[in-house]
């Protein structure tokens, strides 16, 4: 369920929500994330649910979602970001980009195996002009092109540009040393 309040004038506080958005799912998943479309004049928002479903609603037609998509993974959509009016970046267990026109889902870390899901959960997606930077729980950062529209460089769509792996330092730095808990025996 998503509730919408509208403020008509500065300083006016509405008494309650003006619109209720509800999706008919038998398991009643909670809404984990919302993202408003970047297009001027459109009153469309995306809702990411706890069961991995994505719903788009037009605020002018609140009776039912105008678009729905299931990511095939039963984990919450923690964060969403509009890339352009027809493309969404999704942060779930995996980092994904969804083209709403074709319903094509692109993984931001294609070499990543689904069975390793809890070793390397996508922890952040940063959208930069022309590329994505993704951070993963296993300590890696990935940089990928976001898919330029020009034909001449179409081959580069989704090209993995760089990967960095964070490794454990051999010795802790002085500011990283944790004190021993009270009553702990010294090593050795």
Rounded mean pLDDT is 73
CATH homologous superfamily name? YVTN repeat-like/Quinoprotein amine dehydrogenase
Strand order of the largest sheet: 3-4-5-6
CATH topology: Methylamine Dehydrogenase, Chain H
Number of beta strands: 14
Shape: globular
Characterize the main sheet: 4 strands, antiparallel
Number of helical elements: 0
What's the helix and strand layout?
Elements: E1 2-4, E2 19-21, E3 31-36, E4 44-49, E5 53-58, E6 67-70, E7 79-84, E8 87-91, E9 95-99, E10 104-107, E11 122-128, E12 131-136, E13 140-145, E14 160-165
Antiparallel strand pairs: 1-2, 3-4, 4-5, 5-6, 7-8, 8-9, 9-10, 11-12, 12-13, 13-14
Task: Characterise the protein shown here.
With 188 residues, the chain is mainly β. The model is unreliable at 148-158 (pLDDT under 50). Strand 9 (95-99) and strand 10 form a beta hairpin. A 4-stranded antiparallel β-sheet has the order 3-4-5-6, with no helix packed on it. Strands 7-8-9-10 form a 4-stranded antiparallel β-sheet, with no helix packed on it. A 4-stranded antiparallel β-sheet has the order 11-12-13-14, with no helix packed on it. The chain has one domain (2-170): YVTN repeat-like/Quinoprotein amine dehydrogenase (Methylamine Dehydrogenase, Chain H). Helices cover 0% and strands 39% of the residues. This is Peroxin-7.
